[in-house]
């Protein structure tokens, strides 16, 4: 039996989200049904639309049209120009999708890119991004952001914080929780019964035994020792500059990095168009394309839907479907 359809929140309507949704439906059709939560009038002209009231109706509707759970937005879509009046509806679309996934009516939530400043300015959105907002909605105090593709899986131990705050945010307990959530996610969703996890150091050359920083000795080392004592296959801390060449990547199922760019630069360099953002630790499955709103090309028909298609496929596979 196939999973329930995937819910897709519309993201920033002035960005490429509406174009990605239409392109993904044209590519996947009824083979992977999903329901777009947003204003159908924002979709590209000529997109066949099936307005539905229940996300479960998307399974049949997707055969002939893009299923849409209508959410009326004030004003028209203006490609490239976020409108403050529309910000609250963007947040509502995310919340609606999360609730559908949480109660099982949708098998997963796939979120299209948001414009964080537009949400902050127009709706008082106080969260750094989707990941933190979804954790708050689910009343979960710790989640993990994984970026995944067929070539690499990476997890930043700290996410959307200034680089100057990273050393203070890295604690033995915090790192322990990130790695345990990653370990469980690999076992549950990625067919890794005995996950192999490699951990990057914070400092150049992983601190060189304390000569270039002591975080590896005082924080990372004790955390990894505790995990190994509990039977987890965890290696490191490794020098980050030698972790991502082909031979090194064969030795682990996921890499834990210490900060945002240390994790995202390798995967975006290796597989930019197919990288998927996965949130582990939520009570439901959430994926997202690994790119932003691309306001500069919105409305031109130039958006590449590959990452969105891969995000839907990964959500479907994680839910037990085949794609």
Automatic annotation (TrEMBL):
It holds the Pfam family PdxA. Its main location: cytoplasm. One of its GO terms (molecular function) is magnesium ion binding. A divalent metal cation binds at residues 160, 205, 260. Its cofactor is Zn(2+); Mg(2+); Co(2+). Binds 1 divalent metal cation per subunit. Can use ions such as Zn(2+), Mg(2+) or Co(2+). Substrate binds at residues 130-131, 268, 277, 286. It is found in: Cytoplasm. Its EC number is 1.1.1.262. Keywords: Cobalt, Cytoplasm, Magnesium, Metal-binding, NAD, NADP, Oxidoreductase, Pyridoxine biosynthesis, Zinc. Signal peptide: none annotated. It catalyses: 4-(phosphooxy)-L-threonine + NAD(+) = 3-amino-2-oxopropyl phosphate + CO2 + NADH. Pathway: Cofactor biosynthesis; pyridoxine 5'-phosphate biosynthesis; pyridoxine 5'-phosphate from D-erythrose 4-phosphate: step 4/5. Coiled coil: none annotated. The keyword Oxidoreductase applies. One of its GO terms (cellular component) is cytoplasm. It comes from the Bacteria. Transmembrane segments: none annotated. One of its GO terms (biological process) is pyridoxine biosynthetic process. Homodimer. Belongs to the PdxA family. Catalyzes the NAD(P)-dependent oxidation of 4-(phosphooxy)-L-threonine (HTP) into 2-amino-3-oxo-4-(phosphooxy)butyric acid which spontaneously decarboxylates to form 3-amino-2-oxopropyl phosphate (AHAP). The active site is located at the dimer interface. This is 4-hydroxythreonine-4-phosphate dehydrogenase. It comes from Roseivivax marinus.
